[in-house]
Amino acid sequence: MLEEVSDAPSQKLVSEVYTIMSRDDVTECAKGDPLIVSLGNNWLKRNMGNKLKRKYYSSSRMRGAARLLQHLRTITNTNMTMSKFICPMYFDKMCEAALLCASMENDDEEDLKSPSSTLEIGFDIKRMKNLKLGLALKSDDKDQKREAEEFTTLLKMEWSISVSRMAHLKLREDRMNRPHKPLPIPQDLSILGGRVSSELKEMGMNVKKTFENYKRAVMLLETRLLTYNKRRSGELEALSLENYKSRSQGLDEADRALMGEDLTDLEKYLVTSQELIQIRGKIGKIVPILVPEDAKTLMADDVRRAVGVKPWNNYVFANTGDGVIRAYDSLKSICGELSLSAPEQITSVTMRKYIATLSQVIDMKDFELEWLCNLFGHTASIHKLHYRSTSGFIERVDIGKLMLLVCQVVSCHAEESDQHVESPENVPENEEVDLEEDEVPRKKPCTRQAWTEEEETEIKELLHSNFQTKTFPKMKECMGAISKSRRKGGVVWKRKWETIKKKVIRMMKKNPHLKP
Questions:
Q1: Could you count the other beta carbons within 10 Å of the beta carbon of residue 108?
Q2: For residue 322, what pLDDT is reported?
Q3: Choice among 312-321, 416-425, 489-498 with the minimum mean pLDDT
Q4: Element housing 136 (H / E)
Q5: Reduced to 3 states, what is the DSSP secondary structure of residue 277?
Q6: CA 36, CA 32: separation in Å to the nearest integer?
Q7: In the sheet where 275-280 sits, what is the strand order?
Q8: What secondary structure does DSSP assign to 224-248, as a single string?
Q9: Most buried residue, 45, 102, 280, 372, by most Cβ within 10 Å?
Q10: Helices vs strands, H then E, count in the chain
Q11: Side-chain-side CA neighbours of residue 144 (13 Å)
Q12: Can you point out the beta strands (E) in 86-217?
């Protein structure tokens, strides 16, 4: 797929990216190469929706490509541009330079200090190859087009074996050998949450409007929302004023129709005391932030103006410049003020892993796990592979009991076999053994629980609208019926939602004129 190409720096690239890049020879190399400038433009457009972080992504990728170009020039003892190196003649040199970007030591290809850098460079090489091809097509340069296409062929044939495989092996080896990063201590989280919550309640509008007090309030709010929602710190600090003003309060008509009026006291409290904000998550996914009661009073506009926040700074947690007060720094600062057992173990990532690990012990259902994944903003496979760590309790106790049980079963089976199996000398040759009919192993019969009249009557009441409109219920409606049945002390809640759905469908088909 061709990239949108331009070898001249865009206005946003100059104003946003160039101003934050370090002033050294790497940056000068990046700014002076047309293809690397095109790569910076491309990365800026790829992350157009992430206004807060896009400049850092573009700067990092441009500097990585510049280091690759510096290694290529050293290896070949030339001063060519990146476009000249993207051709079949220099493919092997490109592989060597990519490994050097991972700080390869002693000419040992398996000794890579930073294998992830090599993988990132590989993706950017493919992008720069596409950029060169796009420029060649626009200028009708057949030689450049042929070089880019032949370089593409070599990438497909040899890059994974020459570079990527070694980087992946090194990453897996490092992941296996590195010490396990411990999860936060529950008592530390309790102390942190209690301290932040109490201090937020003490802060009010009567506090003197100074930047120090404003910054303190922002740090407390960021810490409270991080610990409560287990959000990524970068997502939280990018909360805009528009997101906050469009927050959801209470229940809308659809939620009321679904849940009904039979809410428990706890559910009523959570609905009335919390607010819901929708923000941009990873890869543009919309993720929620729950605002608890003690954190509902955010910074007012007059407070922002009084402490020196610029009118055009559109972030809730704005600083006096064009950026934000970092949520990661706020969390670390608050943790450092308290007497915690292990404050270094409390980060936004470890708290997400903490919740993901606890979900194993709770034995969550599939739809409940889906809710949790939607809150985190990732898929179930990422949840199980990356975030969820097997707790020491599960490994030592539950899995340990399973292993002991298997050993006992095998031991008992071996003893029974020794006692009942006859010696080969006592068994006549060519004698067939016939099993009696009662001795033939049979499949365990399936037991089904018949539906009672009480259950059928309750189903008609709970799914009254479905029977009226003759529409089959969906999972959400069945789960709502189960929830109502549990609150009212009914009996249908003991059934699975799939069983309830099948029963309703059978009832409708059996008697189409059924009146609820």
A1: 9
A2: 87
A3: 416-425
A4: helix 115-139
A5: strand
A6: 8
A7: 248-249, 275-280, 286-291
A8: HHHHHH---HHHHHT-BHHHHHT-E
A9: 102
A10: 26, 3
A11: 17
A12: none
Q: Encode pLDDT of 58-85 as tens digits.
A: 999 999 999 999 999 999 999 999 999 9
For residue 369, give the amino acid letter: L
Give 3-state DSSP helix, strand, coil % of the chain, rounded to 5.
65, 5, 30
| Cβ atoms of residues 118 and 101 within 8 Å | yes
Structure tokens at 252: 């809308």
Amino acid making up residue 403: M
The 10 Å Cβ neighbour count of residue 435 is: 8
204, 186, 93, 87: which is closest to 146 by C-alpha? Answer: 87
Q: Is 275 helix (H, G, I), strand (E, B) or coil?
A: strand
Mean pLDDT of the residues in the chain:
81
Tell me how far CA of residue 272 lies from CA of 64, 200, 292, 293, in angstroms. 50, 19, 10, 9
Domain covering 193-341: architecture = Alpha-Beta Complex (3.90)
> Which amino acid, 106?
N
Q: Please tell me the distance from the alpha carbon of residue 3 to that of residue 13, in angstroms, as a whole number.
A: 17
Cα–Cα distance for residue pair 277/287, rounded to 1 Å: 8
Query: What are the tokens at 383?
Result: 């949840």
Tokens linked to 460: 């008609």
Amino acid type, 489: G
Amino acid letter, 447: T
Residue 217 · residue 297 · CB < 8 Å? no
Cα dihedral value 253, 255, 256, 258, nearest 10: 120
pTM, to two decimals: 0.65
What's the pLDDT at 483? Answer: 84
Most confident of 88-102, 236-250, 432-446, 497-511: 88-102
Maximum Cα interatomic distance, the chain, rounded to a whole number of Å: 103
Q: Which residue has the tokens 């069945």?
A: 478
Domains in the chain: boundaries: 11-177, 193-341, 347-413, 453-510
Closest by CA to 113, choosing from 67, 181, 177, 174, is: 174
